[in-house]
Task: structure prediction
Amino acid sequence: MSEVRVLIADDQKVVRDGLATLLGLLDGITVVGTAVDGDDAVRQALQLDPDVVLMDLHMPNCSGVEATEQLAAAGARCRVVVLTTYSDDDWVFAALRAGARGFLTKDASAEEIRTALTTVARGDAQLDPTVQRRLLEALSHGGVSALPASIPDNLTPREVGVLQLIAAGRSNSEIANELYVSDATVKTHVNHILAKTAARDRAQLVAYAFRHGLAQP
Result:
């Protein structure tokens, strides 16, 4: 890839402008736009079709996690690299589950950012070494839910995650808090799951999850 087209999403103007200036100086990187929050990032990404969205996580109205999920649901071609001051495990794993392919903290150097953007644009993943280590540790200790080998009824990985939380007795609000998305997004996922599984209510969804091995007693 000779040129990587990047959309920057961050709610702080000084950060947006600084990143745009920095990336504009890097060979092979072109900034095609800047977004002020997650909603703006989704709108511009669908309009501008960048190769990569450099996404902050903590933004008003629509978080980076939710914006990443919406882009995946919309079938957007772009890939997401998270760049944030926050690197706690819950946010990291929520972003990765939503579809992010890269994760960097805001103390990353210009070369580290350039490497992440070009690597993710090629279709590979690029995680900060500390994030990668914590992810491996969480996997080894069962801290990250694994997907089944075969997912029934064309459920997406995100829908399986929501279904597993329903089976664990979580309410929509609790699921939203755990996945760092809005209640409306969870409601949409639940409606899709009900339609795909032909279940009438949450009780039938719980039974479905156990029947298909998506949840354990």
